Amino acid sequence: MTADNVLLTVTLLLAWSYILYPALVFTIASIRKKRKTQNDKPPGPLPPVSVIMSVHNEATVIAGKMQSLTATDYPAELIEFLVGSDASTDATDSIMREQAAKDRRISYFEFSVRRGKAAVLNNLASEAKGAFLIITDANVMFTRETIRILISGFSETTGLCDATVVSSSVSLTGITMQENLYSRFETSLKRAEGRAWGAMTGPYGGCYAVRRELFPVIPDNTLVDDLYTGLTVLRKRYQSLNIPDAKVMEDTEPDMAAQFRRRVRIAAGSFQNLFRFGPFPSVKIKVSFAFFSHKVIRWFTPLLLVIFFMTTVILSGRSVFYFFLLSVQLIFIILSALDLVLNSYGRRTKFLRYVTQFLMMNAALTTGFVKAVRGIKYGIWEPTKRIRNDGKNKAEYYR
Questions:
Q1: What is the pLDDT of residue 42?
Q2: Torsional class of 145: left (φ above 0), alpha (ψ -120 to 50), beta (otherwise)
Q3: What are the pLDDT digits (tens) for 187-217?
Q4: Which of 194, 359, 365 minimizes the C-alpha distance to 274?
Q5: How do beta strands 79-86 and 106-111 pair?
Q6: CB-CB contact of 263 with 223 (8 Å)
Q7: For the chain, how big is the Rg over CA atoms in Å?
């Protein structure tokens, strides 16, 4: 294959994953949404639900989290809350003991040896009595309607329903704005995938619901349990959907270094699941097509970018066009470096930060790939710094 053909192939793959595939999905989803009739699903009796949550040193947010859960409008006799402490060393255990003493729906499990989120979720799931499990994180706050709306999204063919996250961060510092924009795009794309093919490619790990019989025993060393669960559901030929009105709120960590560590963990866990399920995880063509187009190509973007760069270096002497392509890439690298320098002096430029975020995401993917190839022994990781709930957003959480 000639250098020109290599460059063309790489360009098409990148364009497909970032532009053409999303455009296709949004178009199909829009058509199907218009065709969908209202009230096509008659209301039925509400099923019993178990909310399960693994926590480790969440004293900053756990009281607000439990308040957002127990204030739900879901019938009290149909819901239980199972919380497991993964060897917390702060005030989490004492706070949760008080919470459990005040509300009989809360069961609190204290584990003295830290094993990771996946192991705790497995224990809690085995204790759950609900027909549906809602898996959530401590810093993700619910509205009164979140649980009811999330469960109402299930039909007979639906195995998993995903909540819609709304950022509670209003800070324009760090990388908050860029992360929030990317998160909104990903949520919209996953929602469209659900409408187009019934195959949302991985739920939002902070809050999603799954049929209890479909919830897998997650390997203890799993770093991204939500993707493992989502792929398991799709492999069993059930639909996976995002529910737009099932809203939850989460803070966004503004620190770039903290976000980089978070993305490295997610990348390592993503490749870990790719090695387990393969690039085509389902016999359903549309499911595997969506996963490969949205996730697999995206995860290998760093490799494609390196090939693109090296190919333009080789071809840059042949024409002005190739030299221009090489120059643009070098300029983007310089702009990101400039952004980091300005950031060290407490200054930021919105456009430069978007460039930095894109390069940071791909650097994290590269680092995560290396970690996954070397092997992941433990599913233990430190959560990003939590922002204390000061009460300013309680009206939004509990309305």
A1: 53
A2: alpha
A3: 999 999 999 999 998 898 899 999 999 999 9
A4: 365
A5: parallel
A6: no
A7: 22
Mean pLDDT (whole number) for 93-108: 96
Contacts of 39 (CB under 8 A, 6+ apart): none
DSSP 358-395: HHHHHHHHHHHHHHHHH----B--PPPPPPP--STTHH
Q: For the chain, which residues make up each domain, given as ranges?
A: 49-253
- For 334, the token pair is 């310089």
d(CA 343, CA 321): 33
What is the helix (H) or strand (E) element at residue 134, kind and residue range?
strand 132-136
Range list of H helices, the chain: 3-15, 21-35, 62-70, 92-102, 117-127, 146-152, 176-197, 225-235, 256-277, 285-291, 297-299, 301-315, 320-344, 350-374, 394-398
Residue 246, judged by CB atoms within 10 A of its CB (0-12, 13-18, 19+), counts as buried
- Cα dihedral 172, 177, 179, 184, rounded to 10, equals 140
The CATH code for residues 49-253 is 3.90.550.10
What are phi and psi for residue 137, nearest 5 degrees?
-110, 160
